[in-house]
User: Fold this.
Amino acid sequence: MTEVWRAVIVDDEPPARQTLRLLLARERDFTLVAECAHGREAVAAVTAMRPDLLLIDVRMPGLDGFAVLRELGADAVPAIVFVTAYGRYAAQAFEQHAIEYLLKPFTDERFADVVEHVRRRLRERALASLGEQLPSLLAENASRASRRQLV
Amino acid sequence: MFRRPPVAAAAVFWLFITAVYALQIWWLSHLPGERIDLRMVYAWQTPYFLLWFPITLAVWRIAAPWIPESPGAWAAVAARHVPLFVATAAAHLVATVVCVAALGQLRGPFVTAVLDQMRGRLHLELLVYTAIAGTGAAFVLHERFRDRQIAAATLEAELAAARLDALRRQLQPHFLFNSLHSIASLARAGDTAGVVRLIAGFSDLLRHLLEQGDRHLPLDEELQLVERYLEIQRVRFADRLQATIDMDPAVARARVPLLVVQPLVENALRHGLGPRVEAGSLAVRARREGVWTRIDVEDTGVGLPPGWTRDTAEGTGLRNLASRLAAEFGSAWSLDVMPRTVGGVIATVRIPFTGAAPSNAAERKRA
Assistant:
């Protein structure tokens, strides 16, 4: 699979962003398309870039992580990972369709596991949407074939 | 000053003395050959002793404020007792003769009877008066001692609460885990010197809060602690936080209560700069202002909520600091938290300037 997934990271603390940037750079099939320091920036970036993966902090000045997701709507991003210092937000995060929950500080291995989980989920989604598109693709092919016959 | 005079105890004491003396007279009157007019003796002795009771209360009340705060001023107190003794002895003897006259046992002129009493009983008057003044002083000193103990215990408890409060804030996930995460990020970036510096600073911070040491420290040591905290925060927030500490060397060794600046700095970051998306700055300034040590903590954050007052504020940090200052300095302190005209907040503490304090660090080194 040669697909490259597009990621956005959101954290108000520069060292935390640096960590995510560094670790994500080790994953060849992910590319970082935006880095945001607060919620407002995140809403704008996601709306503009339509990323596949959003790595987002919960506690931020202004708009917090949950508020960002509420503003974007449930299906704006296929894969959401919360990155936070608090364990107590986990339940709320999964309600908001997060697929992973990274507790700071985390190890490189834990981050790699999370990315692997994200990768599987994104592939499943891609296959599923391919499955949905299959009938129409076949139909298109069929009509193209019949057109060819006509010609 | 003398809030709980033992009125009942004094009454019981004088009734008891009256009864004992009456019993003695009665016993004496039964000895062979004695011809004592019991009615007359009782008419003299009973008022004499019972009248001491109101005089005891009066002397206690009048003399209580005279007890000096510091030892060495007792000669002045004794001098004040002389006229009070003369007045009470005269009043006591005159009142006794008045009672005897009322009981119909006065033989001879009134003035002669009073003078007779003085001739016969002045030494007794002096003895009893001294005992009354002495017990009064003992009660006052005991009360004062207890008040001091309570104040000291209160101060100790409040400092413990402040320590616990600071410790809790520093062990909150938001600070603790984000700080550790920042340290991990420095490690990942290969900045080993930075990692070591932050771990050492963080340890200093926690050690200081965990130690059950002295309640006071020199101002420069308190500010070093604040600097450790700011160092961590500067790494976490990088270009979003400009923080400076500016201390006049004249107050470097001033003796200050532990955690007098730290809560103000934490408040400025948490409530002032924390909720702000834009970069902000924090300035700590310490200087001498006449008899005061003055410390300002100024931030360019979101400012105070409308209707905010120190006493109704949500957090306990400021209220705890205020009550610790009150317990320590009485009314000689101030803690003002004011909005700045250009946005943000300035918190100002003034406490009495006291010269060089022994260094805790030096004590630790010796230990």
